[in-house]
Amino acid sequence: MNASLPHKERLREKIIIDKLFSEGKSINAFPLKLVYLPIENKINKVAFIAPKRTLKKAVERNAVKRVLRENYRLQKEVFFNNIQANFAFAILYLGKEIPEFHFIEKKMKVLFHKLQKVQSNDGQS
């Protein structure tokens, strides 16, 4: 099992990011929000966002993004075993303080289980 998060899996292309936020669908599990969009790439791409409006200090935003990245990195193999398509993801943190690692772990599992349900329902339709 490869539990790394290389740069090729990071969402950095402005065109895809703009398309993700204009045409993408979202799932909430407060304080996390997942915005996703199917893409043609061979790998999933992900971005982690902690807004400046709620977390004023860069140190706090970076700490939140670090927790989000680590949780995603550790759990991505489990999440994507049942999903056939490749996606562009943006995981947004909507809370006002730095979260606990295990709290974010639970919420991220909820987000991706909801995504799996949505994908399985779309496959049946």
From TrEMBL:
Gene Ontology BP, a term: tRNA 5'-leader removal
Highest taxon listed in the record's lineage: Bacteria
Subunit relationships: Consists of a catalytic RNA component (M1 or rnpB) and a protein subunit.
EC number: 3.1.26.5
Function: RNaseP catalyzes the removal of the 5'-leader sequence from pre-tRNA to produce the mature 5'-terminus. It can also cleave other RNA substrates such as 4.5S RNA. The protein component plays an auxiliary but essential role in vivo by binding to the 5'-leader sequence and broadening the substrate specificity of the ribozyme.
The protein's enzyme class: hydrolase
Name this polypeptide is given: Ribonuclease P protein component
Protein biosynthesis recorded as keyword: no
